[in-house]
Structure formats: C-alpha cells, structure tokens
Design a protein that fits this description.
471 residues; alpha/beta; Arc Repressor Mutant, subunit A; Aspartate Aminotransferase, domain 1; Aspartate Aminotransferase, domain 2; 3 domains; eight-stranded mixed sheet; four-stranded antiparallel sheet; 40% helix; elongated; binds pyridoxal-5'-phosphate
Length: 471
C-alpha cells in the first residue's frame, strides 16, 4: 500500500510523521509523539499546544482524532485544558538518569602505595632552567619530526650517564626514546611478535599492568618463572621454553631480590642457547642504600639484552620519559615501531632531560633524594621491627618499596581488606603472582610518606593485624 506521510510542526518542533497504512490508529500515533515530546523536554511544562482545529487541518485528519489524542493525554496527566479552550503541557520532562558510576573507593588516609616517586620533590627550578635553555638554544630542525629513536642530544647524554653509572655498554645510536617503560616494552613485544616469537617469560611475581597484558593481546603466551631471594630462579628458567625474558635483576619487582653474578651468567647462557632476548627493566636502580652497586646485565651481553630505563622513579612518572638500549640488529625495527605508535616522544622534554643530565642536575637531584628515601625506609624498618617483628622484611637494600612476608596464620587478603577499612593502604603480593604458589606478603611503598606518617601507619597496621588474628 502506498504510504502518505504528513509532517506536523508544533511550536516550531517537528512532532510526528503520520503513517497512514492502517497499522496504528492515527490518534495513537499523535498521542505517542506528543508524549515523547513531553518526556524528552522538547515540549516543556506550561507550553501551549495548538488548537485541535489547526492541528487537524495541518495533519489532514478529522478534528475528532486530535480531540481523542488530547483527551487521552489529559487523562494520563500529560496535558491539561485551560480556560479559553487551549491545552497546555502539564508535566515536566523526565530527568535523564545519570549514568551509574561505581563509587570510587575513598583514598586511604595513610597509603603505602608503591610504584611512586615523591613528585613533591620534583626539581622544578632546575628543570625550568633546562627547558629555558632548550627553547633558547635548540636548532629549528629539532622541532620537526625526528628519527624514531628520538633526539640525538639525549642519546649522547644517556649513553654517557648509563655507561658511567649503570655499567651498560650503550652506543648513542642504539638508544630509542619512548614514553616510559610501559611504551618501551610494548614496542619490544610488537617487534618480537612480528618476528615470530610465541612465548614471553616473566618473573613470578611481577608487574601485571604492562608487559603481561600487552603480550597476551599480541597473542604471546606468558610464562611465569618463579623468583626467590636471589631473583629469578635459574633452575626453573632452564626448563622454560621462551623467546624472551623480562627481568628486574637489580631489584626484583616486587620481592626485591638481587640477581647474583652466577645467576646472571646462567640467564645469559639460557638466552644464548635459546636465541632469546632478555629485557632488563632497570626501574629503580638509582636508589641503593646499603648494598654494593650492581651493574646492569646489559653490559655483559649488549647483543642479547635490551636495557630499559625510565624517569618515573627518579623524576616523575608524569613526564612519560623512558629509553631502551637496543641490540644493534633490532634498533631499526624498534624505532619503526615507535614511529608507527606516535611519531616520537615530545622533543622539548627529551632535550630538557639531555641538558639536565649533561649539566649534572640529575646526579645532584639523586644525591638530594637518596637520603630522603633512605630515612623513610629506615623509619619503616624501625617501625616494623618494633610493632610487627613477626613480619619478615625483604628486598630492603634498594628501591622505593619493600616487601614483608607474612607468618602462616595471617591471610594476605584479610589483612589488606581490614587495613583498607581503617583507611590504611597496604597491598598484597598475591595479585602479582602467576602461579598460586608462594608465601603471602605485603608490599609497602615508602617514597611518598613522611617518617611520622610511616610510624602512624605501622601502628595502625599492628592494630589491624591484632583484629584479624582475633577473629
Ligand atoms: C616494575 C616496574 N617497571 C617499570 C616501571 C616504570 O614504568 P613507566 O616508565 O612506564 O612509568 C615501574 C613503575 O612503577 C615498575 O614498577
């Protein structure tokens, strides 16, 4: 059947297209359209509707059809008849329901959150001087698109710094600047997956928010290799069939173990045997308190090891500035992946960091921060020793966090939850495990808490643990 459509304009608003195919009575269609207009607010409370005669004429229907629709809507309370014979909208629009968002958990009053630097100590004045110098002195071409590896000035400055301080064997041309470790490891995983890699080995436990999900999304199988107080267990690694291994050899995350010399040699033998790549995540090596410096493993085998560094722990994670020292045969592939990802990291920050490094500001900043963090760590160890002597600290000699193993009668999740209820943020090791084996433990970041808050936090934790034990 041919369908005739009539447009009705009511107070300037398109109201309805009448279908004359007989499936829905005309008065119903008009009711529905006006009802929808009122609910949506298009016909606001108090607005007048045109007289039935006018509207009937406009629509080409009998006046009775309009009267019937108005009467129905009046009966439902949408419309009301006013003296003088006109009809008004009688109710307001339905409020649009606000999208339901889960209530964010209140921030803990005292938070031993880890993975943070104390950004309140960011060296603003020195950074500003570097930025100013860069903006004054950088050649124009630096503000164009750069090679995927980043700014040459930063390659030079980093190679000097890393070879001097971290014992790497880095050539400026082998460095790729990236947006923190998170992007660096993502680029490496992309390159690995493209070259046919199938399996990525990671420490168990290890961070669960960077390489692991990225590798899984790229179709790689992620295999956990257990760690002990000496970092990754090389006996377990020997049985692991993987194309690459991510390691935190200088300070295992989160348990804090340092990979001893013989294990380093064994890891490199494993990599050579398998033709595997080692990715060395050197995330907090700059902070070392009471142990001898441990050089980067990359220095032992620059053709097998990618060294990954970041300013997230030393300056600020918000800078999103990191670097990879890449075996020469992979440099072009990684640089290409970087260009594809984002065409390069912001150049002003790269040049500012190069200036900051070469002028010795980075060393100065670290010299200033080490005692600050050391005092916080000492306060935490002292408070734990006094208030909770049966929690066994580990991995305390370096970094910005430590772990305490829990005695067997304490359930990690119960302690974490009970602490959260009292406004105390402590975090379990369990969520970072790949296999379900291994002792329960708590991770304490101490970088952002003053000594008094640390003492108060541990007092509170002792009360929490008493409460959990008394259940
Ligand atoms: C194990 C580990 N690696 C690397 C990083 C640094 O990541 P990014 O440079 O992406 O901030 C962190 C930061 O917390 C970390 O905990």
């Amino acid at each position: 059947m041919a369908m005739k459509r009539t447009n009705l304009r009511l107070a300037g608003e398109l109201l309805i297209e009448l279908r004359r195919d007989g499936t829905v009575p005309l008065h119903r269609q008009i009711e529905t359209a006006i009802r929808a207009g009122i609910r949506s607010g298009r016909l606001p409370l108090g607005s007048s509707l045109p007289p039935t005669r006018t509207i009937a004429l406009d629509l080409g229907v009998s006046r009775g059809v309009i009267v019937e629709a108005y009467e129905q809507l009046a009966a439902e309370g949408y419309l009301t008849s006013r003296a003088g014979g006109y009809t008004q909208v009688a109710i307001g629009a339905e409020p649009v329901p606000a999208p339901r968002r889960p209530m964010p958990a209140p921030a803990p009053r005292i938070d031993f959150g880890y993975g943070r630097a104390d950004v309140s100590n960011f060296p603003r004045a020195a950074w500003l001087r570097s930025i100013r110098r860069v903006l004054t002195e950088a050649p124009n071409e630096r503000f164009g698109y750069l090679d995927g590896r980043g700014a040459p000035e930063l390659h030079e400055a980093l190679a000097d710094y890393l070879n001097r301080v971290r014992g790497t064997s880095a050539e400026p041309g082998d460095i790729v600047i990236c947006n923190g470790y998170a992007q660096g490891v993502t680029l490496l995983i992309q390159v690995l997956a493209r070259s046919g890699a199938r399996r990525l080995a990671v420490e168990d436990p290890s961070a669960d928010d960077d390489a692991r999900p990225v590798a899984e999304a790229a179709g790689l199988e992620v295999i956990g290799v257990p760690v002990d107080e000496g970092g990754v267990r090389v006996d377990a690694l020997d049985r692991t069939d993987a194309d690459a291994l991510i390691l935190t050899p200088s300070h295992q995350w989160p348990t804090g173990g340092v990979l001893p010399a013989e294990s380093r040699a064994a890891v490199l033998r494993w990599a050579a045997r398998r033709g595997a790549l080692i990715i060395e995540d050197d995330y907090d090596a700059e902070y070392r308190y009471d142990r001898a410096p441990v050089g980067a493993i990359q220095g032992l085998a620059p053709d097998r090891v990618v060294y990954a560094g970041t300013v997230s722990k030393t300056l600020a994670p918000g800078l999103r500035l990191g670097w990879l020292v890449v075996p020469r045969h992979l440099v072009d592939a990684v640089a290409k992946a970087k260009v594809t990802a984002d065409r390069g990291s912001p150049v002003v920050d790269q040049l500012a960091f190069a200036d900051f490094l070469t002028r010795g500001e980075f060393d100065r900043h670290l010299r200033r921060m080490r005692p600050v963090y050391r005092r916080r760590r000492d306060a935490l160890l002292a408070a734990l020793g006094t208030r909770l002597p049966d929690l066994e600290p580990t991995g305390v000699a370096a970094g910005l966090h430590l772990v305490t193993w829990l005695p067997p009668d304490l359930d990690e999740t119960a302690v974490v939850k009970a602490a959260a209820r009292r406004g105390l943020g402590v975090y379990g090791v369990g969520p970072y495990r790949i296999s379900s084996d291994g002792p329960s433990g708590l991770i304490f970041g101490y970088a952002t808490l003053g000594e008094a808050a640390i003492g108060e936090g541990i007092d509170l934790l002792a009360a929490v643990i008493d409460e959990v034990r008394s259940r």
